[in-house]
Model the fold of this input.
Amino acid sequence: MSPNSTDISNGELKLLQTDEYLKHESINYAKKWKEFKYFLSQLKWFNIILITTVHVIFVWGLITFPWLQRGRLILWHTFIAHLCGIGVGAGAHRLWCHRTYKAKLPLRAFIMVCYTIAGHNPLFYWVRDHRVHHRFTDTDADPHNSKRGFFFSHVGWLFMKKHPDVIRKGKEVDMSDLWEDPVIRFHHKYFIPLTLCFCFILPTIVPPLVWGQDWYWSIITSVVGRYVIVLNVTWFVNSAAHMWGTKPFDASISPTENITVSCFTFGEGWHNYHHTFPWDYKAAELHYAGYNGSTLMINFFAKMGWAYDLKSASPELIKKVALKSGDGSHFVWGKEVPESAEEEIRKEVKQK
Done:
């Protein structure tokens, strides 16, 4: 018998190879089952049931709602949605999270109420999660990491327990400035009654009491319709504005300039600019870009003296960054501009 031969027949050898293959397969199935059980353990069933239920009711209401006969109700919730946009965009986002401007107590109280109407998490948690999102964008420490797909970054992150890195990095974020604000402390202490009152009860009872709207549709549109729309519009900043659009300021990051999201969120969809200049109170290059309702509101209160110390990037800095890091899609700096045009463009921007 040659040194390299074996006394096992071809049939027996094939049998051994098959047994070994099945053994490996069983190990893989055991591993997959273990991973599946871990996945189930990470799900937050209360959130899944609640969010899914209100969305199912929303779709049913969308189909059966008498659109032509309820014009005043639509206008009412459009007004309420604008208040929500101010609370989330100008308040939680630009004021408390990024400190892009300062606000006096009456304005902070007003913005807090507007934020409460939106029905989001307590301000303290919203700001903490967003600061973590900016510091660790699209990593495991990002609460709504867009690299995990559209569904996860849109709403799926609310269906699951936070990744350990999110919790770990969240503890490292300095939140001391929020606790120094009595408005934040008040909102945190009375979060549940404030949310019930301003998000659901008041928007529901005003239409029937003021102009005799029927209670049925007032409840459906307030508790489900407007609430679901506001939630999804906000979520699109985390999902769509991190996936589709241009990157005129920094092509190396995922956030994009998404005009559709910007229009529906009152100016929060110019996300490539915002992640490049997070300290700019406009959250966009130009205050008239799309519909930037939050910027208009801040400018209005600045004239009243309630908002002050507004921070903004200069045209010179924007040009430098766009030419150096952008993808070439900037409406002005996407192409080479003569040096002689610098002063003219600067004047034009200031006039706008």
